[in-house]
Amino acid sequence: MTRTQDLHDSSGERLQKVLAHAGIGSRRACEELITQGRVTVNGYVVQQLGIRVRPDAIIHVDGNRVQLDETKVTLVCYKERGVVSTMSDDQGRSTLADYIEDRTERLYHVGRLDADTEGIILLTNDGELAHRLTHPSYEVPKTYVARVEGTVPRGLTKVLEKGITLDDGPVKVDRFVLREAGKKHSIVELTLHSGRNHIVRRIMDEVGFPVIDLVRTQFANITIGRLKPGQVRQVAGTELGALMSMVDL
């Protein structure tokens, strides 16, 4: 018996249908992925289109895990300025829950953004995914765009990428880009994996360029894209698979 036959379960769903249902692509596109040898089931490459798989099969496409559990949901929302990163607030302030009033799942936010910071934040009911995305050992990168006071010199890039010391210890950015240097204000982009509180504002304060406005534009592989303030979309398919792979799921 071949490995492909070992994987085949006559009572299961056809592999291309499973992939399409998981948001990987159309049925035809998923068939092409299979015949190109880009799909594995339980660690084995499958290139035959007739294979049926069990619901508990572990499937990867291009090395990224495919989420087959339909009860697990991950969303990305564009948090507006003034909204607090909680699901409820005893002071009556706007919360993340206001964005998902039509959802029946019990969702939790992955990390936080300051009330004065806008941008993307993930919501999920996948506890293991949320835990890993916020655990320091996985060093998940986040990208921010900030408008700051003053004219930022180009030499600041080397300073921040080498690292500076704050009250609670050293920190460095993974990438710093000076987008625009004006006479009164500058626009900068920072990518870092630190999850410490108010970290971007504290870094820029320390080097003498206080933040005026701050937007998180990327979390892990999830980008702000065409999302507008207050909008929410689901993370699924290959995008979700890549996110899971970043934290070894």
Automatic annotation (TrEMBL):
Keywords: Isomerase, RNA-binding. It is an enzyme of class 5 (isomerase). It catalyses: a uridine in RNA = a pseudouridine in RNA. Residues 13-71 form the RNA-binding S4 domain. InterPro entries: PsdUridine_synth_cat_dom_sf, PsdUridine_synth_RsuA/RluA, PsdUridine_synth_RsuA/RluB/E/F, PsdUridine_synth_RsuA/RluB_CS, RsuA_PseudoU_synthase, S4_RNA-bd, S4_RNA-bd_sf. CDD domains: PseudoU_synth_RsuA_like (cd02870), S4 (cd00165). Its EC number is 5.4.99.-. PROSITE patterns: PSI_RSU, S4. It holds the Pfam family PseudoU_synth_2. GO terms for molecular function: RNA binding; rRNA pseudouridine synthase activity. GO terms for biological process: enzyme-directed rRNA pseudouridine synthesis. Belongs to the pseudouridine synthase RsuA family. PANTHER family: PSEUDOURIDINE SYNTHASE FAMILY PROTEIN-RELATED (PTHR47683), RNA-BINDING S4 DOMAIN-CONTAINING PROTEIN (PTHR47683:SF2). This is Pseudouridine synthase. The lineage of its organism: Bacteria, Bacillati, Actinomycetota, Actinomycetes, Actinomycetales.
